[in-house]
Design a protein that fits this description.
The protein contains three helices and nine strands. With 190 residues, it is an alpha/beta fold. Bound molecules: inosinic acid (IMP) and magnesium ion.
């Protein structure tokens, strides 16, 4: 799938949007390797436990889709939509749940999957929400981690790649709803 995907555009393709330069930070081959590694760890830890995997929309949808296809045991998938960013590149600190859980979490082995842990505010807020519903176990997996930006103490059990404090897009991750379709993770250079 990844080899046929187009390279990132040289600048912003959306009509009316200000031009932004993109620089590849993490190539698709590296993403694929990390996703496979995370899936191996999850497979080892969840064998025979029939986990409930909760993806956080929208940013995790590409990562989640790739990750779950490496898991060769029964899983339930649910999706929630959280929002903490407006159209800005700076977290508002306010976490809203725009679409909630449909599958009960009580007594389930829950794994939350997100794209990036940045300040940690949204994941810590959502993890508390899940914990109040009494899962059997609760773990967190994120593709990317910006440790230098953390504002709350949150333990992420499965981390793909740590990145510096730069705003990234691609592989499901957006800037003002653009660039989710890029195959590589890119830095937006203003
Ligand atoms: P946090 O609550 O600050 O940890 O981050 C919440 C969400 O903000 C993440 O799950 C991402 O969806 C989004 N986010 C954080 N950093 C970036 C970025 O560099 N680019 C795009 N979205 C980001
Ligand atoms: Mg997110």
């Amino acid at each position: 799938m990844t080899d046929d995907c187009p390279p990132p555009p040289a600048d912003s393709p959306a009509a009316g949007a200000a031009p932004q330069r993109l620089r590849v930070l993490i190539e698709r081959q590296t993403l694929a390797r990390e996703v496979r590694r995370l899936a191996q760890e999850i497979t080892r830890d969840y064998q025979g436990r029939y986990p409930l995997i909760i993806g956080i929309l929208k940013g995790s949808f590409v990562f989640l889709a790739d990750l779950i296809r490496y898991l060769d045991f029964p899983v339930t998938i649910d999706l929630v939509r959280l929002s903490s960013y407006g159209s800005q590149t700076v977290s508002s600190g306010q976490v809203k749940m725009l679409h909630g859980l449909e599958v009960p979490v009580r007594d389930r082995h829950v794994l939350i999957v997100d794209d990036i842990v940045d300040t940690g505010l949204s994941l810590s807020h959502f993890a508390d929400y899940v914990r109040q519903r009494e899962p059997a176990t609760l773990k967190i997996c994120t593709l990317l981690d910006k440790p230098s930006r953390r504002q709350v103490d949150i333990h992420v059990d499965y981390v793909g790649i740590a990145i510096p404090d730069q705003f990234v897009v691609g592989y499901g991750i957006d800037c003002d709803e653009q660039y989710r379709n890029l195959c590589d993770v890119c830095v937006v250079e203003e």
